[in-house]
Design brief:
Blueprint (H helix, E strand, L loop, with lengths): L2 E7 L11 H10 L4 E4 L6 H9 L3 E10 L2 E6 L11 H10 L3 E4 L20 E6 L5 H15 L3 E4 L11 E5 L5 H9 L3 E5 L4 H14 L2
Parallel strand pairs: 1-2, 2-3, 5-6, 6-7
Antiparallel strand pairs: 1-8, 3-4, 4-5, 8-9
The chain binds zinc ion (ZN) (2 copies).
Length: about 210
């Protein structure tokens, strides 16, 4: 069985995203995904609620602002405090039963964690569709994952519905959270997809522009 999952999506519970729970599932299905991870900024309410309310496979998660940059926790249903050291943040994610992903480690202007990633992490997000600059940050994330021998995953970091699924992780797992997590830890996963397409980028910018008119 293969699970096709966008492992990094923000919803309206993130404040900076406009994706409603309904849109999340609508676009995930439309793009042929079989799972999606909700990783709102320092917030777990939305992820918990959405995971319970839909029959689509939603992996509850969080994107924690650690002292040195963002860290995604997958299968985390308790709030991990912000501004802890990366090591402690990873420990807390593990204690909560989750896995820690070094998301967009080399992206500019985004609270990237860069050189603070250690082998204690469970995976590196090598493809992040929202990354800037996409090419060089993807290359550096790949080198990092290889040097630390960590599994590679992908997600869009979508804050706008149509972006969902532009990147995704193919996971050799059964369609349930435990199986997906186990497969990622064991490296039975493959990051695929690319940056947000140009037309979508324009639409996205236009949406922000309209909001401030
Ligand atoms: Zn981030
Ligand atoms: Zn994010």
């Amino acid at each position: 069985m293969e699970v096709k999952a966008d492992l990094h999506v923000h919803t309206v519970y993130s404040n900076d995203s406009v994706i409603t729970p309904k849109e999340l599932v609508f676009y995930a299905r439309k793009r042929g995904l079989t799972a999606v991870a909700v990783t709102d900024h320092n917030q777990i309410e939305g992820a918990r609620k959405i995971a319970k309310e839909t029959d689509f496979l939603v992996i509850p998660g969080i994107e924690v602002s650690s002292l040195n940059g963002h860290i995604v926790g997958l299968n985390v249903e308790e709030l991990i405090p912000r501004k802890l050291s990366p090591q402690e943040t990873v420990d807390r994610i593990h204690q909560a039963g989750g896995i820690a992903v070094a998301c967009h480690p080399f992206v500019l202007f985004k609270g990237s964690i860069g050189k603070h990633v250690t082998a204690k992490f469970d995976a590196v997000e090598t493809i992040n569709s929202s990354a800037f600059p996409f090419r060089s940050s993807t290359e550096r994330a790949n080198e990092l994952a290889e040097r630390l021998r960590l599994p590679k995953v992908a997600g869009t970091d979508a804050h706008y519905g149509p972006v969902i699924g532009q990147a995704y992780t193919l996971i050799d797992a059964e369609p349930n959270v435990d199986s997906v997590l186990k497969a990622i830890i064991n490296g039975r996963c493959q990051p695929l997809g690319g940056p947000i397409s140009f037309p979508l980028r324009i639409q996205n910018q236009f949406r922000f522009f309209k909001k401030y008119l």
